[in-house]
Amino acid sequence: MGPDWEREPTQKELEEMKWHVREAMEAGAFGLSTGLDYVPGVYSKTEEVIELVKVVKEYDGIYTTHWRRTGLRRERTVPIIEKIKGIYEAIRICRETGVATEISHIMSGFTIYPEPPTELAIAAVRQTIKVIDEARKEGLDVFYDIIPNVTGGTLTSIYLAALLAPWLREIGSLEGLAKALRMKDFREELKSLILAGKWYALNPRIDPYWDSRIELISHINKDYLGKTIKEIAESKNVDSIEALFDILSEDPSAKYRSRGFTTDEEIAEFIKYPHCMIGLDTYTFDDKWSMKHPPYYVPHPNTYGGMPRYIRKYVREMKVLPLDEAIRRITSLPAKVFKIKNRGVIKTGAYADIVVFDYNTISDVEDPIEPRHYPKGVHYVIVNGVIVVDKGKHTGAKPGRVLKLHRQ
Q: In Å, how far are 208, 243, 277, 290, 371 from 219, measured between CA atoms?
């Protein structure tokens, strides 16, 4: 759409986008994915997305969406967003195109204020699932995935300043950001952008309780240790964004841990639904990678232990699903949804992708300071018939291949 992202595309530009979708599908893409929480996708109108997804229909592909939750385009003055509208939008796209639709990283479609007890939060989860279930009863092919972790899944940083990653990256150092935060004009501008929902990772419009989920674990002011941003703000008699700025101004190297933006009980409720898949939302890294420049990201723990945590927490401990059904959600179900033939099953003629683990010991390794730990209890991994992990150690083999859509 060009640099003027908020401008609606011309018909010529829309046709060009459709051409690119068709070209990708011809090359074997599985479908179209949208990031409606991010620039520039956040500025896309539903009708524009529908036109692009109609191309996917021609190739029997799938539509996946990081559904619209920020409300940046249409509801900029609303302090708390009705997230459920993003799910309704995804269902509408499915209905009007006839394309199977996967809603990525599901969460409750309702923001409850004040912060609800577990029972009320679960009721909101059930109502969210009901919206999807009613769409399926209508005959729509709608699925969703959930991250098996209360803290998300992409990248993480132990530095509190990483919560302000775009500005930290621009300024170039922890100390520089702390210095800027002592400037009144900078603080006011930054605060207004955060309150407007302009930065996804720290967005009170999506999560009005963000300040109660961030706990200080390292700071020159020892009184802060073990306390949340909210608790520190209350002790200083300031709002939480001002408290965050003050904390970083005092110690730019402050470190934190996330208590999570959801609960295991809410995740468990989503997992119970038979059309729920498990998605880690991670990149691929070894156990040495780290970003050498601001915001000093390291891989999220999900990179190494997401699936083991899923088995440990929701199967072995919480007993949300029996083991065979839990395995179906991460093997044959996603293979079926994404039309990937001969994978996700163990049978003659299928590709030999197999993980051998000890059910009684499989587990992630929790460490708030160092997330780069391989899981426990995984003994063998076989990819395309080749042993990649042998007795818990990587063999160095790389037999993986790029997968393409198999059409009927």
A: 24, 14, 39, 22, 20
Cα→Cα distances 91→68, 273, 298, Å = 12, 17, 35
* Paired sense of beta strands 31-35 and 62-66, if any: parallel
CA distances from 136 to 50, 370, 381 (A): 19, 42, 35
Residues in the chain: 408
Domain residue spans of the chain: 11-153+262-346, 155-258
Note the pLDDT of residue 77. 41
Contact 291, 165 (CB under 8 A): no
Mean pLDDT by 10 residues, the chain (408 residues): 67 96 96 89 92 97 91 49 90 98 96 90 98 98 97 91 96 97 97 88 86 96 97 97 98 95 96 97 91 94 96 98 98 96 95 97 93 96 98 96 79
- Counting Cα atoms < 13 Å in the Cβ hemisphere of 115 gives 11
Give the angle 58-60-61 at the CA atoms, nearest 5°.
105
Tokens read off for 160: 């509190």
**Tokens found for residue 75:** 């509801």
Cβ pair 120, 112 in contact under 8 A = yes
Q: What CATH number was assigned to the domain covering residues 11-153+262-346? A: 3.20.20.140
Residue located via tokens 């110690």: 251
Question: What pLDDT sits at residue 261?
Answer: 87
Q: Tokens in use for 235?
A: 């002790």
The answer to whether the predicted template modeling score (pTM) of the entire model surpasses 0.70 is yes
Please tell me the predicted confidence (pLDDT) of residue 41: 87
The amino acid at 247: I
What Å distances lie between residue 322 and 7, 266, 270, 271, 364, CA to CA? Answer: 50, 18, 15, 12, 19
What's the token pair of residue 271? Answer: 């997992």
Cis peptide before 117 (omega within 30 of 0): no
Residue 381 backbone dihedrals phi, psi, to 5 degrees:
-130, 125
- 204: tokens are 């009170």
In 52-199, the DSSP E strands lie at: 62-66, 100-103, 142-146, 155-156
